[in-house]
């Protein structure tokens, strides 16, 4: 298991295959390689095109948005779209960005702390009911949120937490994202047990072993968790729609959507501008955390 | 291990996390947990309304006026488009966090009132809320089961908006003021012919429950029985309505189904896009449509049934209500009275919420009948005394909004060929029975 | 015996099967580490699940006390034509978009696997849509793109095709959402890539030497060895697709239209529960969704023994 995981991780991080593969490639017709490159690039362009078009359209006038399918701006860039969009809702858009950021950071901390603790227990410690609890935990990955959203909503409204960020953040401190627990369990299983036992011999209890041995070695899994949590939370819509009803609490997702259906003229330029602004954080996190993302996906995808 | 995370660091991060959670809980809004109203001498009122941008602008002005006169009251505002408003209000009400003063639509009024969500304002009427200047229809419209749950804030009526310049440019004669549904159909077809597939006669109203209501009344029956527990209108009449509009589509008197389905707001409506010169709506909507158009819109009374009963009416379908969980009902009532009766407030609101509810308000506004607002007021006044209008219907029953959506959806199915008028009428009739009996 | 070995012996159960003091200590530690999860499981997951099961047998409008009505909600689901439509829409979405998405992911993964240079660049390009695909911003973009005067139609016009308004026509509106889901094939693709790299090159070598063609190699080597990962992706993407909400909500403006053609089951559930005050009915709908998703997953697991090949 250990070796497989590490091989998986190595390969996934882009190390090109064995030398034999290289030789096989060289034997092939260069034209075919060129054609394949072309097709792959073409598909890539088609995939990315909508995003590029939206980026360009955020600098266009409304008329141009509806008449131009290409990537030229068609006149001078209308930077005022960004200003209009920024001020287009009840609060400046930065307010919503800040809200989303608070939620995301809270969720990241919650997941990092609670999921690592649970994963350590599942992966390293023996206790009665371990198998049962692990199975239950895995099953919650498949649970549609809709089954629990109504009672959760009732609980949170009785607690007076509706219209705050608490319903979105507090569950993360209770290891409710079973996906990350699972991710970390798989990762911990790749850490040699001998290290644990060495620590035990040194007189470390379970807690010290967790802090001194496991956590430092889990950094890739922790990074993956942090990055994925950020992305999922930033893009989350349904829970935010339900729990954040006062405009001052709106996250980026909810604010953007209220922008669309705010009756009157749908000003697409400012709307796209704010869409671009809302996607930038995710994009940046992606750029910075790419390596971890791929490793993380690969680790769960493996056996 | 040199890079271990010490227990101290771990605890530190946990505290930071808890700190952020608390920050999140407190900072988001003052509404979280503590509700409105405090013991410190300043009370706060949450006011919420739906409408387009002109409504938002006007309401902000009015609330600023109120705030200037009442320094001890802090007002926080919430507003959204009509469709979104209701999802939000439902969740807020469930969380016992409903706004103190809310704009309430007849569409949902009974749903909220019968479920105990609205404050009984009966005791305030005649004291802190003065409704004496209101026309009877408006004053009574918020009364359900003998209690007053809403204060009518405007009169509205069904109207037709017509772009006469477009009609002229197509070489078609202006329509007759006293048109019947059949002459309306003929006229629309002639516009469609002149328009050659680019312009049609009228917007497709087949899915509009609120325009079907006058049609039913013109045929001698109300929509609902007096208890609101079932439909009073017959299934056959529903089929007749949908057959009418199906014929209109076939004759190119109204646009095709997908064009109608792409109307998502005022800016995408067919009349604004120049696809039709005529559309139906509520009279004050002229203020929202006109700014989006270069050509002038005029108002006309919609068609009648030859030899039928008067079907139209002028009543109040938008009201101010107070949440039953409000901590400041008396302040809320005070604000409502201000919005209805104060001269400065009346001027600030103009006609965005609808035609003013009292004669006094109309006088204060002294509107020039050539302005959009002036047109709307004159229209409502003329209609209320004409022979095309009669007593307004009773408040719409619980489930009205569901029925309205169902009506639209069934009409869409028919227009896209997934159903036909006969089948649609039977389906709708059966589903309506289910919805109303819940 | 080594120190480690002695340690292991210490941890063995005493005769009689009772836990040693060491094991008890371990168990206590385990429960401390698990405390957040246990609280979360009971308070946020299992508890609410039981409550929602209870609510599904009641008429509950959030404002008044739930009223027990027995199986009326479930009976109502049987006769609710709009619910059946939403099921049809959701099933269509799942059964059409997931296979296409996975096929695209697999095809691209295989294409990218052959030692192309700039692999990580292409991988990022393909992954980006799935990163952003569930956001409101992209749903908004989609709504514009497929509108009657949107980007897609402008491009088609440039080549002389006059296309209808995709999102205002019930026969094509769902298609735009299917395309959106397929567009996000980047995530499963990355997983396939990782899996492909795990297949030893020598299998392909040996097959080539034996004269096997590329297609044969794909069928006999790639597919079986990749099957656990295909299975993983299949299960996850199906579960994910059944729960789709944001895209339908934003593209249809919350209506599920036109003509309920984009009324995902979750959207109808949201309308019933959070729009129409019918939380009891919404709860019963949620349980129906759980049963459906569970059934699909169970069938997947059952069928897996016929086509998934584990080499351990």
Q: What is the CATH first-level class name of the largest domain in chain B?
A: Alpha Beta
- According to DSSP, the number of beta strands of chain C is 2
- Per CATH, the superfamily of the largest domain in chain B is Periplasmic binding protein-like II
Give the name of the CATH architecture of the largest domain in chain B.
Answer: 3-Layer(aba) Sandwich
* Low-confidence runs of at least 5 consecutive residues of chain B: 1-5, 21-40
Radius of gyration of chain B: 25 Å
Number of helices of chain C: 14
The CATH class of the largest domain in chain C, by name, is: Mainly Alpha
Order of helices and strands of chain B: HEHEHEHHEEEEHHHHHEHEEEHHHHHH
Structural class of chain B: alpha+beta
How would you classify the helix and strand content of chain C by structural class? mainly alpha
Question: What string, H for helix and E for strand, traces the elements of chain C in order?
Answer: HHEEHHHHHHHHHHHH
Give the overall silhouette of chain B: globular
């Amino acid at each position: 298991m250990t070796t497989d995981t590490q091989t998986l991780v190595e390969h996934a991080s882009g190390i090109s295959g064995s030398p034999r593969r290289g030789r096989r490639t060289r034997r092939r017709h260069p034209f075919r390689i060129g054609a394949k490159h072309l097709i792959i690039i073409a598909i890539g362009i088609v995939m990315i095109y909508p995003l590029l078009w939206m980026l360009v359209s955020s600098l266009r006038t409304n008329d141009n948005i509806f008449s131009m399918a290409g990537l030229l701006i068609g006149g001078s860039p209308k930077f005022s779209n960004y200003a209009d969009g920024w001020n287009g809702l009840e609060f400046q858009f930065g307010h919503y960005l800040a809200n989303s950021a608070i939620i995301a950071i809270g969720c990241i901390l919650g997941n990092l702390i609670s999921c690592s603790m649970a994963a350590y227990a599942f992966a390293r410690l023996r206790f009665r009911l371990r198998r049962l609890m692990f199975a239950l935990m895995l099953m919650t990955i498949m649970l549609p949120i809709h089954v629990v959203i109504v009672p959760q909503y009732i609980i949170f409204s009785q607690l007076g937490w509706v219209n705050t960020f608490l319903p979105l953040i507090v569950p993360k401190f209770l290891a409710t994202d079973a996906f990350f627990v699972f991710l970390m369990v798989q990762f911990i299983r790749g850490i040699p047990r001998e290290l644990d036992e060495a620590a035990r011999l040194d007189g470390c209890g379970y807690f010290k072993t967790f802090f001194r041995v496991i956590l430092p070695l889990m950094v890739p899994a922790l990074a993956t968790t942090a990055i994925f949590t950020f992305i999922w939370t930033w893009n989350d819509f349904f829970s935010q729609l339900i729990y954040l009803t006062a405009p001052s609490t709106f996250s980026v997702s909810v604010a953007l959507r209220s922008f669309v259906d705010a009756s009157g003229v749908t000003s697409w330029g400012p709307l796209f501008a704010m869409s671009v602004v809302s996607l930038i954080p995710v994009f940046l996190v992606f750029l910075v955390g790419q390596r971890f993302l791929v490793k993380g996906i690969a680790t769960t995808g493996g056996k | 291990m040199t890079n271990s995370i010490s227990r101290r660091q771990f605890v530190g991060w946990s505290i930071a996390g808890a700190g952020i959670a608390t920050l999140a809980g407190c900072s988001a809004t003052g509404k979280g947990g503590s509700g409105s109203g405090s013991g410190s001498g300043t009370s706060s009122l949450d006011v919420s309304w739906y409408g387009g941008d002109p409504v938002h602008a006007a309401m902000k002005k009015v609330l600023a006026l109120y705030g200037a006169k009442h320094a001890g009251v802090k007002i926080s505002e919430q507003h959204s488009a009509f469709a979104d408003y209701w999802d939000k209000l439902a969740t807020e009400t469930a969380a016992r966090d409903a706004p103190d003063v809310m704009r309430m639509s007849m569409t949902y009024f009974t749903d909220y009132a019968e479920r105990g969500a609205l404050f009984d304002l009966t005791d305030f009427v005649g004291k802190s809320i003065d409704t004496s200047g209101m026309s009877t229809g408006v004053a009574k419209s918020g009364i359900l089961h003998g209690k007053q749950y809403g204060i009518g804030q405007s009169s509205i009526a069904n109207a037709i908006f017509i772009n006469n310049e477009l009609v002229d440019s197509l070489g078609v004669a202006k329509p007759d003021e006293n048109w019947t549904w059949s002459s309306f159909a003929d006229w629309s077809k002639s516009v469609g012919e002149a328009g050659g597939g680019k312009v049609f006669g009228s917007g497709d109203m087949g899915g509009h429950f609120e325009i079907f209501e006058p049609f039913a009344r013109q045929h001698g029956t109300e929509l609902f029985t007096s208890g609101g527990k079932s439909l009073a209108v017959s299934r056959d009449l529903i089929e007749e309505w949908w057959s009418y509009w199906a014929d209109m589509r076939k004759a190119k008197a109204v646009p095709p189904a997908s064009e109608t389905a792409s109307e998502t707001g005022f800016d995408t409506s067919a009349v604004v896009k120049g696809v039709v010169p005529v559309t139906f709506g509520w009279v004050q909507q002229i203020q929202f449509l006109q700014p989006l158009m270069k050509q002038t819109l005029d108002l006309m009374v919609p068609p009648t049934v030859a030899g039928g009963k008067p079907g139209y009416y002028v009543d109040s379908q938008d009201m101010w209500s107070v949440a039953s969980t409000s901590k400041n009902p008396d302040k809320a009532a005070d604000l409502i009275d201000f919005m209805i009766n104060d001269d400065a407030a009346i001027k600030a609101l103009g006609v965005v919420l609808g035609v003013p509810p009292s004669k006094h308000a109309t006088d204060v506004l002294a509107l020039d009948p050539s302005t959009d607002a002036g047109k709307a007021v004159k229209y409502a006044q003329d209609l209320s005394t004409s022979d095309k209008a009669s007593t307004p219907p009773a408040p719409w029953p619980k489930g009205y909004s569901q029925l309205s959506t169902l009506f639209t959806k069934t009409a869409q199915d028919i227009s896209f060929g997934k159903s036909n008028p006969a089948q649609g009428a039977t389906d709708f009739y059966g589903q309506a029975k289910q919805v109303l009996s819940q | 015996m080594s120190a480690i070995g002695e340690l292991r012996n210490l941890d063995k159960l005493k005769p009689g099967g009772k836990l040693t003091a060491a094991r008890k200590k371990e168990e206590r530690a385990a429960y401390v580490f698990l405390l957040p999860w246990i609280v979360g499981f009971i308070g946020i997951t299992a508890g609410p699940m039981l409550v929602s099961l209870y609510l599904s047998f009641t008429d509950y409008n959030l404002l008044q006390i739930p009223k027990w009505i027995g199986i009326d909600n479930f009976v109502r689901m049987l006769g609710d034509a709009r619910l059946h439509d939403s099921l049809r829409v959701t099933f269509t979405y799942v059964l059409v978009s997931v296979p296409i998405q996975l096929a695209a992911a697999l095809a691209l993964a295989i294409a990218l696997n052959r030692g192309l240079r700039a692999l990580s660049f292409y991988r990022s390009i393909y992954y980006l849509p799935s990163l952003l695909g569930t956001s409101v911003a992209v749903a908004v973009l989609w709504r514009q793109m497929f509108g009657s005067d949107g980007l897609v139609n402008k491009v088609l016009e440039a080549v002389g095709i006059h296309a209808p308004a995709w999102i205002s026509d019930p026969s094509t509106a769902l298609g735009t959402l299917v395309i959106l889901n397929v567009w996000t094939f980047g995530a499963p693709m990355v997983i396939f890539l990782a899996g492909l790299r795990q297949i030893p090159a020598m299998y392909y070598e040996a097959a080539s030497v034996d004269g096997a063609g590329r297609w044969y190699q794909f069928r006999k080597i790639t597919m079986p060895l990749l099957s656990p990962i295909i299975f993983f992706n299949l299960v996850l993407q199906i579960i994910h697709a059944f729960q789709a909400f944001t895209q339908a909500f934003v593209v249809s403006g919350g209506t599920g239209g036109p003509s309920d053609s984009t009324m995902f089951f979750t959207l109808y559930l949201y309308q019933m529960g959070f729009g129409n005050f019918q939380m009891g009915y919404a709860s019963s709908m949620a349980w129906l969704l759980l049963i459906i998703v569970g059934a699909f997953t169970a069938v997947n697991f059952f069928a897996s023994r016929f086509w998934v090949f584990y080499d351990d």
